[in-house]
Protein backbone atom coordinates (compact mmCIF):
# COMPACT_ATOMS: atom_id res chain seq x y z
CA UNK A 1 0.00 0.00 0.00
CA UNK A 2 1.54 3.22 -1.17
CA UNK A 3 0.88 6.59 0.40
CA UNK A 4 0.82 9.89 -1.25
CA UNK A 5 3.64 12.24 -0.10
CA UNK A 6 1.12 15.07 0.17
CA UNK A 7 -1.05 12.98 2.47
CA UNK A 8 1.99 12.16 4.65
CA UNK A 9 2.78 15.85 5.11
CA UNK A 10 -0.82 16.61 6.04
CA UNK A 11 -0.82 13.71 8.48
CA UNK A 12 2.40 14.98 10.10
CA UNK A 13 0.92 18.48 10.33
CA UNK A 14 -2.26 17.15 12.02
CA UNK A 15 -0.09 15.24 14.51
CA UNK A 16 1.89 18.40 15.25
CA UNK A 17 -1.36 20.34 15.76
CA UNK A 18 -2.54 17.83 18.33
CA UNK A 19 0.63 18.01 20.44
CA UNK A 20 0.34 20.70 23.15
CA UNK A 21 2.60 23.66 22.86
CA UNK A 22 4.95 23.52 25.86
CA UNK A 23 7.11 26.41 24.74
CA UNK A 24 5.40 28.79 27.19
CA UNK A 25 4.46 26.63 30.18
CA UNK A 26 4.81 29.33 32.81
CA UNK A 27 2.54 31.84 31.09
CA UNK A 28 -0.18 29.27 30.39
CA UNK A 29 -0.12 28.02 33.97
CA UNK A 30 -0.23 31.54 35.37
CA UNK A 31 -3.09 32.52 33.05
CA UNK A 32 -4.92 29.32 33.96
CA UNK A 33 -4.25 29.93 37.66
CA UNK A 34 -5.47 33.52 37.40
CA UNK A 35 -8.61 32.42 35.50
CA UNK A 36 -9.24 29.74 38.09
CA UNK A 37 -8.74 32.22 40.91
CA UNK A 38 -11.11 34.69 39.23
CA UNK A 39 -13.69 31.97 38.71
CA UNK A 40 -13.37 30.85 42.32
CA UNK A 41 -13.75 34.42 43.51
CA UNK A 42 -16.85 34.87 41.34
CA UNK A 43 -18.20 31.57 42.66
CA UNK A 44 -17.58 32.68 46.23
CA UNK A 45 -19.39 35.97 45.63
CA UNK A 46 -22.24 34.10 44.00
CA UNK A 47 -22.42 31.68 46.92
CA UNK A 48 -22.37 34.59 49.40
CA UNK A 49 -25.26 36.18 47.49
CA UNK A 50 -27.18 32.92 47.49
CA UNK A 51 -26.51 32.46 51.20
CA UNK A 52 -27.79 35.97 51.86
CA UNK A 53 -30.91 35.22 49.78
CA UNK A 54 -31.47 31.98 51.69
CA UNK A 55 -31.16 33.82 55.01
CA UNK A 56 -33.66 36.46 53.88
CA UNK A 57 -36.07 33.75 52.73
CA UNK A 58 -35.67 31.90 56.03
CA UNK A 59 -36.40 35.09 57.93
CA UNK A 60 -39.40 35.86 55.72
CA UNK A 61 -40.77 32.32 56.09
CA UNK A 62 -40.26 32.44 59.84
CA UNK A 63 -42.16 35.73 60.01
CA UNK A 64 -44.97 34.32 57.87
CA UNK A 65 -45.11 31.16 60.00
CA UNK A 66 -45.51 33.32 63.11
CA UNK A 67 -48.30 35.30 61.44
CA UNK A 68 -50.03 32.10 60.36
CA UNK A 69 -49.85 30.70 63.89
CA UNK A 70 -51.45 33.88 65.24
CA UNK A 71 -54.13 33.73 62.53
CA UNK A 72 -54.82 30.07 63.35
CA UNK A 73 -55.15 30.94 67.04
CA UNK A 74 -57.56 33.77 66.20
CA UNK A 75 -59.61 31.45 63.97
CA UNK A 76 -59.82 28.82 66.73
CA UNK A 77 -61.01 31.48 69.15
CA UNK A 78 -63.61 32.71 66.65
CA UNK A 79 -64.71 29.12 66.06
CA UNK A 80 -65.19 28.59 69.80
CA UNK A 81 -67.16 31.84 70.05
CA UNK A 82 -69.32 30.82 67.10
CA UNK A 83 -69.99 27.41 68.66
CA UNK A 84 -71.04 29.10 71.87
CA UNK A 85 -73.23 31.58 70.00
CA UNK A 86 -74.78 28.74 68.00
CA UNK A 87 -75.53 26.79 71.17
CA UNK A 88 -77.11 29.84 72.76
CA UNK A 89 -79.08 30.56 69.59
CA UNK A 90 -80.25 26.93 69.46
CA UNK A 91 -81.46 27.11 73.09
CA UNK A 92 -83.28 30.38 72.43
CA UNK A 93 -84.82 28.93 69.27
CA UNK A 94 -86.00 25.88 71.19
CA UNK A 95 -87.54 28.14 73.84
CA UNK A 96 -89.32 30.12 71.10
CA UNK A 97 -90.60 26.92 69.49
CA UNK A 98 -91.82 25.67 72.88
CA UNK A 99 -93.57 29.01 73.52
CA UNK A 100 -95.20 28.90 70.08
CA UNK A 101 -96.37 25.33 70.74
CA UNK A 102 -97.79 26.44 74.12
CA UNK A 103 -99.57 29.36 72.42
CA UNK A 104 -101.07 27.06 69.78
CA UNK A 105 -102.17 24.64 72.47
CA UNK A 106 -103.68 27.52 74.47
CA UNK A 107 -105.40 28.84 71.33
CA UNK A 108 -106.77 25.38 70.53
CA UNK A 109 -107.99 24.94 74.10
CA UNK A 110 -109.55 28.40 74.06
CA UNK A 111 -111.29 27.72 70.71
CA UNK A 112 -112.54 24.39 72.04
CA UNK A 113 -113.94 26.10 75.18
CA UNK A 114 -115.50 28.80 73.01
CA UNK A 115 -117.21 26.22 70.81
CA UNK A 116 -118.46 24.40 73.90
CA UNK A 117 -119.76 27.68 75.31
CA UNK A 118 -121.59 28.44 72.06
CA UNK A 119 -123.03 24.94 72.04
CA UNK A 120 -124.26 25.37 75.60
CA UNK A 121 -125.72 28.78 74.79
CA UNK A 122 -127.68 27.27 71.90
CA UNK A 123 -129.02 24.60 74.17
CA UNK A 124 -130.29 27.13 76.67
Automatic annotation (TrEMBL):
Q: Which domain of life is it from?
A: Eukaryota
UniProt keyword Coiled coil present: yes
Q: Could you tell me the keywords of this UniProt record?
A: Coiled coil
**In which residue ranges is the amino acid composition biased (Polar residues)?**
20-30
Basic and acidic residues bias: where? 1-12
Q: Which portions of the sequence form the region Disordered?
A: 1-33
Coiled-coil stretches noted in the UniProt entry, renumbered to this chain = 37-92
What protein name does the entry list? Uncharacterized protein
Species whose genome carries this gene: Channa argus
- What lineage, starting at the top, does this entry show? Eukaryota, Metazoa, Chordata, Craniata, Vertebrata
Amino acid sequence: METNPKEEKESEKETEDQVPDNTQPESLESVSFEETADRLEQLMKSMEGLLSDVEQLRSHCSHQATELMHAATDLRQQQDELRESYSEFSREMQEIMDTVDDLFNTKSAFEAKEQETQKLNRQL
